[in-house]
Amino acid sequence: MKTTALIRTLAVSLAIALLTAAPAPRAIAAQEFQPQVGQDGKDVIWVPTPQGLVDKMLDMAKVTPKDFVIDLGSGDGRTVITAAKRGSKALGIEYNPDMVELSKQAAAKEGVSDKASFVKADLFESDFSQAQVITMFLLSSINLKLRPKILDLKPGTRIVSNTFDMSDWKPDETASLPGCNSWCTAHLWIVPAKVQGTWTLPQGELTLKQTFQNITGTLKAGGAETPVTGKLNGEHINFSAGGAEYSGHVMGNSIDGMVKAGTKWTATRK
Ligand SMILES: C[S@@+](CC[C@H](N)C(=O)[O-])C[C@H]1O[C@@H](n2cnc3c(N)ncnc32)[C@H](O)[C@@H]1O
Hints:
Elements lengths: L2 H19 L3 H8 L18 H10 L7 E5 L5 H8 L3 E6 L2 H13 L6 E5 L12 E4 L3 H12 L6 E5 L10 E4 L8 E6 L6 E5 L2 E8 L2 E8 L2 E10 L2 E6 L2 E8 L2 E7 L10
The protein binds S-adenosylmethionine.
């Protein structure tokens, strides 16, 4: 046999041997996939949240078994798995299919596959309106892009972010993990009810201006106009007007609450 014919025969035999012996390409990927800190992600690289901060974030959001928790960009699934271990249903939305597979395997190992699920999806195209708690470790610029959608979630939804902020929407709480070296700060926001506008009260009219969870305005009653300042915590509203403390529960177009009037007293020396 001539040399060229021999090389061709050997090459064909080798190709046949490789094709028949090789497992399916997907199986190789799943077996060999080792996540690397700093690996590319669609909009942000993968860096895991330290487990201590995962715990802190879920504590700050007061996660209970009644909550549905969604982690946007769920990486290796640690936040979702931790929430599931606390009894919550939890979903990870992750763009990298290998990370999704890895997370599913980790959830199975931890025995929480019934509560922890993962989807391969783009967080910008995902519906997260059913969550009571949203966790994320993205970037401030991404948080800001998501902000309009977040502010339209049900009032009271808790959002916790590792390190990155939401620009001028200041957190309701910030906490750092003692003894932690990097990515150790968590911020919590509570989606406020929408109260901006004019409300009618038996005693007059309340006009509110809202900047995220902060409110200012005026209360017109009995011919007097009193300035109002206060805060929202989800559906709960608190404000003071003319020394009286108002608290209430916002339900769409009505508010029910209590007022604690500060009654002035004076005395003159005899
Ligand atoms: C900084 S890591 C955080 C991982 C995890 N949440 C944690 O705290 O350990 C960000 C993750 O978001 C994923 N990601 C980036 N862009 C995404 C997108 N558009 N949709 C879904 N996931 C995305 C990355 O692949 C990466 O796993």
